[in-house]
Amino acid sequence: MEPWFFWGGYGLIGGSVPTGLADVVAIATGDYHTLALKRDGTVTVWGLSTAGQCEVPRGLPSVALISARGSHSMVLVDDHTLVPNTTICPLPPAPPRRSRSSP
Questions:
Q1: Is the pTM above the cut of 0.90?
Q2: What is the pLDDT of residue 95?
Q3: Which of 24, 36, 53, 88 has the most CB atoms around it within 10 Å of its CB?
Q4: Spatial contact of 45 and 73, defined as CB atoms under 8 Å apart
Q5: Side-chain-facing half-sphere of 103: CA atoms under 13 Å
Q6: What sign for the dihedral angle of Cα 30, 33, 36, 42?
Q7: pLDDT number for residue 98
């Protein structure tokens, strides 16, 4: 038996836990999906992926933090870059820098 237990208004969050999932240091859950951050910095995601929330980007560098809410997933990689599930929530362009005028 796996050491994972989930409960909530809809029963299992994100469906069944993947077989063999181990060395997990953090869990994040959205409405119908779950992310697990493993000790080696990789992420395992499972559940309903109607908006791309379970699609781990190719070449994702080592992950430091994970987050999920609703149908969104986001990770912070070791170089402090945020990586959203860009299918539905791309990062907006950075606002222009305002220079301060001296009086």
A1: no
A2: 60
A3: 53
A4: yes
A5: 0
A6: negative
A7: 66
